[in-house]
Amino acid sequence: MNQDLNYKHLYYFWVTAKEGGMSHAATRLGMAVQTVSAQVRLLEQSLGAALFKPSGRGLALTEAGQAALQVAEQIFHLGEQLHTVVHDASTQASVRLAVGISDGLSKLAVRELLGPVMEEPHLRLLCHEGEFDDLLADLALHRLDVVLSDRPAPANPNLKLYSHALGHSPMGWYAPEALLEQARQKFPHSLHEVPVLLPTAHASVRLRLDQWFEQQGVVPRIVGEFEDSALLTTFGSSGMGVLPASELMREKLSQGYGLTWFAPCEGVQEHFFAIGTARKVQHPLVQRLLSPHVDA
Q1: Is pTM beyond 0.90 here?
Q2: Where does the HTH lysR-type domain start and stop, copy by copy (predicted)?
Q3: What is the DSSP letter of 2?
Q4: How many other CB atoms sit within 10 Å of the CB of residue 259?
Q5: pLDDT of 280 higher than 60
Q6: Residue 88's pLDDT is what?
Q7: Distances, alpha carbon 85 to alpha carbons 7, 94, 233, in Å
Q8: Alpha-carbon distance 108 to 233, whole Å?
Q9: Which residues pair with 170 in a beta bridge?
């Protein structure tokens, strides 16, 4: 198997897969069918696997072909962006900041955490939401400048990552108007009866909430669990249930979502971290991000 990838061969394969066959690909490329077929065969030889198989009168992707197509899609999507990226970089005096946002972090908190960098007049902010481990991998490969999360990076000798505590905020309980009085009465045991919405285990605060329930002797009536904190807030606002959230967001939840704070969640806090690398820590906007501390 040849380790050197010929991107021209990959492009012919990609067009063939997108067009659904050699004939259509040849028409799009303005080439003979035999030429396209030969180029695809060279790619198959290079990769050491068949990428197409006969299917009726046409062709279908093999398992290897499906995998190759996924990678080709990413490569040529980036290629399509190249002109725009280079043009923007050459014509605009922007300061680019690529931020990874852990899916366990409250989205309402993200705006507060990014507040210090929003003052940059030429900011070009790129936000990527994803699973914590995936974001750390992208950070280590310098695809991101910083990751915002509700937990520090785990110790890993293969990844030189540095966690910076940005602050913390106590958690409180919030209710839509229709559930407010019922939730207040005999709290926390009212959580046996009122519908409760919670974050999933993607959020590190979920473990602390479960421990709090156990300490309080409460078995909550859970009617919904959400990976996305914005969805959790939206469904709470619709009246589906009461929910825990950072007291840092108290005013925003009241004014923007009609959710009223009705009780503290004693001893439970949401933590905020910025995770960077040794190489990227000198980014001026990352430095600005690390300077303040967010506490409710």
Answers
A1: no
A2: 5-62
A3: -
A4: 25
A5: no
A6: 66
A7: 21, 12, 35
A8: 9
A9: 269
